């Protein structure tokens, strides 16, 4: 095929296997990625000083690529803080409480609301916005706290985060690693996200109802939950009419954003910038109106909280993203022109070489991507490994000859459903804490429905490749 594989290619593959091994053992991969960057740099340049510098340069490159995503998430979290502190979130959600009259309605209403709110605010802030208000309502109509946590988990950290259609943080990471446009990955992910979401949530609801009927799962008359809900009084910063105004105004602005995305054909960075700018506008307006003379200082305080959250989430992602950017165009920016002149990038070269010796089928490709995605999710981030999923999807697509976007989306979905907050216990803590349930029990409850969903979604993906 005319592809020259060098030591750089084999080191890249070796480091990928080591990363997967560390993830299986639930160990951190930061050190492995840094060592991998150094080994590739010193093999390419033969210079220790240049190789050491390349580690720092790769971090700069990764941060530069991820910065819009980190910024928009930080700003949205900051905005959610001001919505919570003023009680506007209570007013936004309270009309839906009237529809919750049975356990089934509680499960589906809380789940769908969580999904919609998570598309705009991200799941972790959405849990705080939604859980404190609707948990007591769900308990009153007979849905156990574990059922509430499952609904928030599966619809928020599962469906909303794995698709991430509005903020587009996840598809940007996977699309960059796969060398594809963000819009292409999002389009390919829509049917897969839909299948995964429908199958998993219905299966979870079926098992939940079965255990409630058999008496294995009962509604806890949890006084601690009730006390926490009653004590969670919001500061009296806005009048009732002001809260009602902002409760309508905030979702209206985001709906206008969505309309603008369709009308102006905005995606990727442009869509992210629109959402981020709107969130800043909302943050400033509500904070200045509610805190009046202290508004300037409170705006900064909310932004600080938001940025602390954003960087805390993405710091583990930066080293692994830095390594995987070496597999594509990032190599030339970080290290320089040290690949053979015939090279199309490390990952593309490996894909072409693999295609010439191993006739991979779309079935094997789909199963492998789900497996890799699930393994990368074991670290509990959901995000730190999706660059690997995108990179391997690109490699397999070259071998199969089609399906790059579908394979990328499939790996992204598997990684985020496992690690983003539905199966890994230490990633379940926000929902478990707000519902006062054991995160390990919540993970155990989610295991079978999510596994069923992944199997069905993988089969569907085989037909779409």
Structure summary, number of beta strands: 0
Instruction: State the share of residues found in helices, binned by percent.
Output: over 70%
Q: Based on helices, strands and strand pairing, what is the structural class?
A: mainly alpha
Q: What is the mean predicted local confidence, pLDDT?
A: 85
What is the count of helical runs? 21
The general outline is globular
Distance between the termini: 24 Å
Strand content: under 5%
Q: List the domain count as a whole number.
A: 1
Helix-strand pattern, N to C?
HHHHHHHHHHHHHHHHHHHHH
Instruction: Give the C-alpha Rg.
Output: 23 Å
Stretches with pLDDT under 50, minimum 5 residues = 221-233
Biggest sheet details: none
Summarize the structure.
With 465 residues, this protein is mainly α. The chain is 79% helix and 0% strand.
């Amino acid at each position: 095929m005319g592809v020259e594989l060098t030591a750089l290619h084999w080191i890249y593959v070796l480091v990928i296997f080591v990363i997967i091994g560390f993830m299986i053992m639930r160990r951190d991969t930061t050190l492995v990625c840094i060592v991998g960057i150094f080994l590739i740099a010193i093999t390419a340049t033969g210079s220790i000083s240049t190789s050491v510098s390349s580690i720092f340069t790769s971090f700069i490159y990764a941060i530069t690529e991820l910065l819009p995503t980190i910024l928009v998430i930080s700003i949205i979290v900051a905005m959610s803080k001001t919505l919570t502190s003023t009680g506007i979130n209570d007013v936004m959600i309270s009309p839906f409480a009237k529809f919750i009259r049975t356990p089934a309605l509680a499960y589906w209403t809380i789940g769908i609301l969580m999904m919609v709110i998570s598309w705009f605010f991200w799941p972790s802030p959405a849990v705080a916005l939604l859980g404190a208000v609707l948990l007591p309502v769900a308990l009153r109509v007979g849905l156990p706290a574990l059922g509430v946590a499952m609904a928030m988990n599966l619809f928020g950290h599962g469906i909303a985060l794995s698709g991430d259609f509005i903020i587009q943080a996840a598809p940007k990471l996977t699309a960059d690693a796969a060398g594809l446009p963000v819009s292409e990955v999002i389009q390919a992910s829509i049917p897969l996200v839909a299948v995964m979401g429908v199958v998993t949530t219905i299966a979870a609801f079926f098992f939940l109802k079965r255990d409630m009927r058999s008496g294995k799962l009962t509604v806890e008359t949890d006084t601690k939950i009730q006390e926490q809900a009653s004590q969670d009084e919001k500061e009296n910063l806005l009048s009732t009419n002001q809260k009602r105004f902002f409760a309508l105004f905030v979702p209206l602005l985001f709906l206008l954003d969505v309309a603008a995305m369709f009308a102006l054909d905005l995606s990727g960075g442009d869509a992210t910038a629109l959402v981020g700018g709107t969130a800043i506008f909302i943050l400033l307006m509500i904070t200045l109106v509610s805190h009046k003379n202290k508004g300037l200082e409170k705006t900064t305080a909310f932004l600080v909280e938001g940025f602390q959250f954003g960087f805390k989430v993405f710091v583990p992602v930066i080293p692994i993203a830095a390594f995987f950017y070496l597999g594509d165009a990032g190599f030339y920016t970080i290290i320089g022109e040290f690949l053979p002149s015939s090279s199309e990038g490390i990952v593309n070269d490996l894909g072409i070489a693999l295609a010439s010796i191993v006739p991979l089928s779309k079935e094997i490709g789909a199963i492998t991507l789900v497996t890799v995605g699930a393994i990368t999710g074991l670290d509990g981030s959901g995000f730190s490994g999706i660059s690997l999923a995108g990179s391997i999807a690109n490699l397999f697509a070259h071998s199969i000859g089609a399906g790059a976007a579908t394979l990328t989306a499939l790996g992204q979905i598997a990684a985020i459903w496992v690690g983003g907050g539905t199966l890994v216990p230490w990633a379940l803590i926000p929902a478990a804490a707000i519902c006062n349930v054991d995160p390990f029990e919540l993970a155990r409850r989610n295991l079978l429905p999510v596994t069923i969903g992944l199997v069905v979604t993988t089969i569907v993906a085989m037909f779409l490749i």
